[in-house]
From TrEMBL, chain A:
Protein's recorded name: ABC transporter permease
Membership in a protein family: Belongs to the binding-protein-dependent transport system permease family.
Keyword presence, Kinase: no
Leader sequence segment: none
Keyword Transmembrane helix: yes
TrEMBL record, chain B:
The UniProt record lists the keyword Mitochondrion: no
The protein's name in its UniProt record: ABC transporter ATP-binding protein
GO molecular function: ATP binding
Family of this protein: Belongs to the ABC transporter superfamily.
Superkingdom of the organism of origin: Bacteria
Gene3D superfamilies, per database record: P-loop containing nucleotide triphosphate hydrolases
Organism for this UniProt entry: Roseomonas populi
Family annotation (PROSITE patterns): ABC_TRANSPORTER_1 (PS00211), ABC_TRANSPORTER_2 (PS50893)
Lineage start: Bacteria, Pseudomonadati, Pseudomonadota, Alphaproteobacteria, Acetobacterales
């Protein structure tokens, strides 16, 4: 008897956001500002030299001054990250659908997916970089290896935990495998898949950075990790921090973007995306 | 309405008769005189992979257009029987025949204990699901789904998601979905067990009204004596370990079942008879 709770214009909003959302934005923001303030104060008070620990203001200044180089590197890293995430999503989805169609396929190939996941990417990155001629391609492969497992494992669990009764219902009406997959298993696995995707988003960034480090140590690549290495060699510590800040921001942004996607896809029906106050 | 002692008497005789006959595989006397059964179970036996003998040697004819309840203690194999009839669970031994449709099962509807709706679909899309799986065009399946929602009194909630509906409303959606293909046989597995009494009574009446207007064959699994007597023309009592037929009781009740019937002495007497049969089944 309750009206759909996303009916527009029905609830109070502050600056376009429901009142309950504000603490979630403000609380971390306040803590962040306090920390940055404390950091700046400590750096100044104890007169810490910038080549050991620059303050946030110095970092911000470097960020602005070096923006042309840094933004180029940011674009390079983000391109690898996004590509890796896309490939990981597509491959992960395809693989888990394959797994869900046959227990045999799952039994045969899951161990290898696990193996790929538990092998540290730093250890295989040099090999991949040697084997694959194209540096971009080898970075992409490294990032993909790190990112694809959460999608595979989550989606597989989702596909396999479909409501038994609903499966029976589909069987009763003579649904084909394809119909069951499209109309039942995939939608039911959606929350699991999206949870995996959010983890994979962060991991693909980590994968890209790690691969860049390995490649950057050899002088190839121009992403943010390479800037960090380069700044380290040149003792330009503020620039190192600026690059680091960009990586963290990107990570947070990717997470927020994927959370938004997840929320938009699930808000009509899934518990995780529903507001609690109804 | 032949009076309480009469119907109780008939029931008793019937019960003993059926116990004696339950070992045979020959068709029961009923279908030589009455209308042809829509489904005939012969020696139906089910042993699960873990060794549990859930059902053994069950013979049962279900008359076309009748309302039959399967009543029995928990674990006596009621759900198992229903799932075998629906073709969702293979038989270990015996056979299930559909004499009327040249041996092929007719259109079936199944209502589970839980509403079993897809939470990502609106009520109308849930109801339209069986039609969608049949490949019916969107406009047509929505028209028919809407018709069914009207029938169960949910016209205003067609575009609500299951989470926006109460438990009773979800169950109505589930019933509407089961009826949307206009099945000849409707199988219901304790559909109202999780609901409160007021809602249950109301849905009992709704179900009877639907049955009266559509005349499908209803096989209704329940563990409630009162519900089985209120709804059905015949109550089949099962005993457990292994699941088997214990008693087969016709319910001689007025054609019109309503709140007056629910409070009548006839109803009370029938409930007592069925209750006693159930008690014996639990000791057997
Ligand atoms: N999938 C299964 N695997 C193994 N044993 C099962 C399975 N399903 C049911 N059983 C067993 O079969 C017997 C009958 O179960 P069933 O669910 O048919 O009983 P029921 O009469 O529907 O009980 P209830 O009233 O509690 O729903 C029980 O002993 C149960 O443990
Ligand atoms: Mg049951």
């Amino acid at each position: 008897m309750t009206p759909p709770d996303d009916a527009p214009g029905r609830e109070r909003r502050i600056l376009g956001l429901p009142p309950g959302t504000w603490p979630r934005i403000l609380a971390p923001l306040v803590v962040g500002l306090l920390l940055l303030g404390g950091w700046e104060w400590a750096v100044r008070h104890f007169a810490v030299p910038a080549y050991i620990l620059p303050g946030p203001v110095a970092i911000a200044r470097t960020l602005v001054a070096d923006w042309p180089t840094l933004s180029g590197s940011l674009a390079v890293t983000l391109r690898i990250t996004v590509l890796a995430l896309l490939v990981a999503t597509a491959a992960g989805l395809a693989l888990s659908i394959l797994f869900s169609q046959s227990k045999w396929v799952e039994m045969t190939f899951l161990p290898y997916a696990v193996m790929l996941q538990v092998t540290p990417v730093v250890a295989i990155a040099p090999l991949i970089i040697i084997w694959v001629d194209n540096i971009q391609a080898s970075l992409l492969i490294c990032a993909w290896i790190v990112a694809f497992f959460p999608v595979v494992s989550n989606t597989t669990i989702g596909l396999n935990s479909t409501d038994r009764n609903l499966l029976d219902l589909f069987r009763l009406y003579g649904a084909t495998r394809w119909q069951t997959l499209v109309h039942l298993r995939l939608p039911a696995a959606m929350p699991f898949f999206l949870a995996g995707l959010r983890i994979s988003g962060g991991l693909s960034l980590i994968g890209a950075i790690v691969a860049e480090f390995v490649a950057g140590a050899g002088g190839a690549s121009s992403g943010l990790a390479y800037r960090i290495l380069e700044s380290g060699y040149q003792l330009q510590i503020p620039r190192m921090f600026a690059a680091l800040a960009l990586i963290s921001f990107s990570g947070v942004l990717i997470f927020l973007a994927l959370s938004l996607v997840s929320h938009l896809m699930l808000r009509r029906w899934h518990e995780s995306a529903l507001r609690k106050d109804h | 309405m032949t009076g309480r002692p009469g119907s109780a008497e008939t029931a008793g005789v019937q019960e003993d008769g059926t116990i004696a006959a339950s070992g045979h595989t020959a068709p029961s006397r009923e279908d030589s005189t009455g209308p042809a059964p829509v489904v005939a179970l012969r020696g139906v036996t089910k042993r699960y992979g873990n060794g549990t003998l859930a059902v053994q040697g069950l013979d049962l004819d279900i008359t076309t257009g009748s309302f039959v309840s399967l009543l029995g203690p928990s674990g006596c194999g009621k759900s198992t029987v229903l799932r075998m009839v629906a073709g969702l669970s293979p038989l270990t031994a015996g056979g299930i025949a559909w004499p009327r449709a040249a041996g092929r099962p007719p259109k079936l509807g199944f209502v589970f204990q839980e509403p079993t709706l897809m939470p990502w679909k609106t009520a109308i899309d849930n109801v339209a699901l069986p039609l969608r799986l049949e490949g019916v065009a969107k406009a047509e399946r929505h028209r028919r789904a809407r018709e069914m929602l009207d029938l169960v009194g949910l016209s205003d909630f067609a575009n609500s998601y299951p989470r926006e509906l109460s438990g009773g409303m979800r169950m109505r959606v589930s019933i509407a979905r089961a009826l949307v293909t206009e099945p000849e046989v409707l199988l219901l597995d304790e559909p109202f067990a999780a609901l409160d009494e007021i809602t249950r009574f109301r849905l009992n009446n709704d179900l009877l009204r639907l049955w009266e207007s559509r005349r499908f064959t209803a096989v209704f699994v329940t563990h409630s004596v009162f519900e089985s007597v209120y709804l059905s023309q015949r109550v089949v009592v099962m005993a457990a370990n292994p699941g088997r037929l214990h008693a087969d009781l016709p319910i001689a009740a007025p054609a019109r079942r309503d709140e007056a019937f629910r409070t009548s002495p006839d109803y009370a007497a029938l409930c007592r008879t069925v209750s006693e049969a159930l008690e014996r089944a639990m000791k057997a």
